[in-house]
Amino acid sequence: MVVHQARGQRTNQFRRGTARYETTLSDIFDGVRRMRDVDNSDTLTDTEHNSSRAYLFTDNRGGCYSAGLTTEDGELQTRTRGQACPNGNGLRWWSHPDGSPDSMGWAPAP
Q: Into how many domains does the chain fold?
């Protein structure tokens, strides 16, 4: 069984008297579960579980947050933070790297 899930989101927000604020969000998960014959008996007795997750948030004001992980046979193999960002992870107080709307009066662009 193979699973691929991806979510992408782009926002444009503006507030009178400030420059437009634009964000992008990418969240990707891939997983594989395979039965395998470990003792050549033609009996599928074991399973292989592998997965990867990649998350990237950027904005037009230099904010960036990235994180990723991989697993093999259900065990964590790698964990990364900031590798997809030019200068590592760096967010300002107004950033919403989960893609949530801003509650401070920002409005979506028409």
A: 1
On whether the CB atoms of residues 57 and 28 are closer than 8 A, the answer is: no
Output the DSSP codes for 19-51.
--EEEEEEEEEEEEEEEE-SSSSS---EEEEEE
43 within some domain: yes
pLDDT digits (tens, 9 = 90+) for 51-106: 999 999 999 989 999 999 999 988 999 999 999 999 899 888 777 777 776 655 55
Instruction: Output the six-digit token pair for 15.
Output: 């507030």
109 assigned to some structural domain: no
Which residue segment(s) compose the domain that 54 sits in?
2-96
CB atoms closer than 10 angstroms to residue 20 = 10
**The CA-based dihedral angle spanning residues 91, 102, 66, 85, taken in that order and rounded to the nearest 10 degrees:** -50
